[in-house]
Amino acid sequence: MKLLVAALDAELVAFPETLPGFDRLVTGPGKLQATYALTRALDATEYDEILVVGTAGAIDRRLDAIVYDVDAAIQHDVTDIDGVVGQHVSLPPRVELGREGVTIATGDHFVDDSEAVQVIRPLGAGLVDMETYAYVWVAQQFGIPIRVLKSVSDRAEGDAITDWRTTVAACSAQLRDVVRAEYGV
Fold first, then answer.
1. pTM, whole model, 2 decimals?
2. What span, in angstroms and rounded, lies between the C-alpha atoms of 120 and 137?
3. Which residues pair with 120 in a beta bridge?
4. CB-based contact 180:71 (threshold 8 Å)
5. Which of 167, 105, 121, 132 is nearest to 30 (CA)?
6. Can you name the residues that pair with 70 across neighbouring β-strands?
7. Average pLDDT over residues 111-122
8. What pLDDT score was predicted for residue 83?
9. 3-class secondary-structure state, position 124
């Protein structure tokens, strides 16, 4: 059995309520809710794989509005005791998924301005979201393979929240197409 995970119900609007071979989990937005909900789910049931689907802002202008596999996650909203951005005092600076893809920067706020993007971009990420680092870290603690698919919803600047709200259904449909093609359900 696999676990299909999204932060918000809106990211799953194109998916049927029941997907053969998958349980479904909606965690809520942000790293804390993601960590709590996924930990509880993995404590309760053994899964062969975790498949995360959701939206992300693109901070690399070369990334189109399509679905990307995530290869690694970093945190953009932490600093260590020396003030190094992206370095947590006790967590790894980068969690790897072991696949080809795009690196995502996770933080507990919705990125929607160019100043924030200018701080995050040098960390080496092409996408931003609010949960992926937490999902990957938790999956690794349980030793469960995880795959993260992200559909680009906005450019993480200016009207990003407006763009996200108007495009989330289209992003969900893109994600559903990829899951159907690659998982056969």
1. 0.94
2. 20
3. none
4. no
5. 132
6. 102
7. 87
8. 83
9. coil
